[in-house]
């Protein structure tokens, strides 16, 4: 029987995170070495938004370069991890049972919200990776419910990852020097406290409970993977902060491990 895996929220930052690991990349690398080898990694990313929920079924997902204006070297990266059609079928089963409007998708590959952070976790691309889409009308409570519907997978050897960004104001990312950039650190501090307190109402209702919520997240899609990962964890799960620091003044790179991490060293 597989040990129950924790769930993980990761800030995937700019696509340049693929080649500029900063503080966060090495921590994800170590985490990948410490965790028992997963049967698969299931990722919710804001870069695949659909009507209803779709589940990627491809056995050999393509690396999607869904960004523009970056160095050519970034577009040459391929992350050739296999997919996992059997886990995808289980995802469909669980979401159908929970009443979600869900359908299979045989075309979607791995967008940069998936392959960029998972490439740090498993640089050899030797663990299957698949995605579940983000419904375009998802909100905080819905993200928790979506994670809870998939939580049984953690006991079946699947690492559930919500990939977003703990702060994500791209206007300020492109316009440095705006007043009070310290708001981003205040939002990060709030998130750590809310997670450690298991304050589900605050996590799901962040717009009403978090300081500077609308400035940290002018749109919700990069925040919602956090309540998703929270919902996928066991109630009262231990919270470990992987402090990724702050890039470009306002783009925080924290990751949060939700649950006890069984230790099983993998080769470096």
TrEMBL record:
Protein name in the entry: Extradiol ring-cleavage dioxygenase class III enzyme subunit B domain-containing protein
Family classification: Belongs to the DODA-type extradiol aromatic ring-opening dioxygenase family.
Domain of life: Bacteria
UniProt xrefs under Gene3D superfamilies: LigB-like (3.40.830.10)
Organism (species): Ramlibacter tataouinensis (strain ATCC BAA-407 / DSM 14655 / LMG 21543 / TTB310)
Coiled coil: none
Cofactor names: Zn(2+)
Domain Extradiol ring-cleavage dioxygenase class III enzyme subunit B: 30-244
Keyword annotations from UniProtKB, A to Z: Metal-binding, Oxidoreductase, Zinc
GO MF terms, alphabetically ordered: ferrous iron binding; oxidoreductase activity, acting on single donors with incorporation of molecular oxygen, incorporation of two atoms of oxygen; zinc ion binding
SUPFAM superfamilies in the cross-refs: LigB-like (SSF53213)
């Amino acid at each position: 029987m597989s040990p129950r895996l924790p769930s993980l929220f990761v800030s995937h930052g700019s696509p340049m995170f693929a080649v500029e690991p900063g503080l966060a990349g090495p921590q994800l690398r170590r985490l990948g070495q410490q965790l028992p080898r997963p049967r698969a990694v299931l990722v919710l990313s804001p870069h695949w938004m659909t009507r209803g929920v779709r589940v990627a079924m491809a056995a050999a997902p393509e690396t999607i370069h869904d960004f523009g204006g970056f160095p050519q070297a970034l577009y040459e990266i391929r992350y050739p991890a296999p997919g996992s059609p059997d886990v995808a079928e289980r995802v469909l089963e669980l979401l159908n049972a929970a009443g979600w409007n869900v359908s299979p998708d045989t075309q979607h590959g791995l967008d940069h919200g998936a392959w960029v952070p998972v490439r740090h976790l498993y640089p050899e691309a030797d663990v299957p990776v698949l995605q579940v889409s983000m419904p375009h009308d998802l909100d905080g409570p819905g993200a928790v419910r979506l994670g809870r519907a998939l939580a049984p997978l953690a006991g079946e050897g699947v690492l559930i990852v919500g990939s977003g960004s703990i702060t994500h104001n791209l206007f300020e990312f492109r316009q440095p020097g705006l007043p009070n950039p310290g708001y981003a650190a205040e939002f990060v501090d709030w998130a750590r406290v809310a997670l450690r307190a298991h304050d589900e109402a605050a996590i799901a209702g962040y717009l009403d409970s978090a300081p500077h919520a609308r400035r940290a997240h002018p749109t919700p899609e990069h925040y919602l993977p956090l309540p998703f990962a929270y919902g996928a964890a066991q109630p009262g799960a231990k919270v470990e902060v992987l402090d990724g620091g702050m890039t470009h003044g306002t783009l925080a790179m924290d990751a949060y491990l939700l649950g006890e991490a069984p230790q099983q060293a993998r080769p470096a």
